Amino acid sequence: MNPRHVLLALAAVVVWGVNFVVIEVGLEGFPPLFFSALRFFFAAVPAIFLLGRPRVAWRYVIAVGLALGVAKFGLLFIAMDHGVPAGLASLVLQCQVVFTLLFATVVLRERPRPAQLVGIAIACCGLGLILIDHQLAAPVGALGLVILAGASWGVANVATRLGKPQDTLRFMVWVSAVAVLPLLGLSLLTEGPGNDLDALRTIDLTGVGALAYLSFASTLFGFGIWGYLLRQYDATTVAPFSLLVPVVGMAAARVLRGEQVGLQQAIAAALVIGGMACTVVRKRTAKAETAPPERALVRSPVG
Question: pTM, whole model, 2 decimals?
Answer without folding.
Answer: 0.86
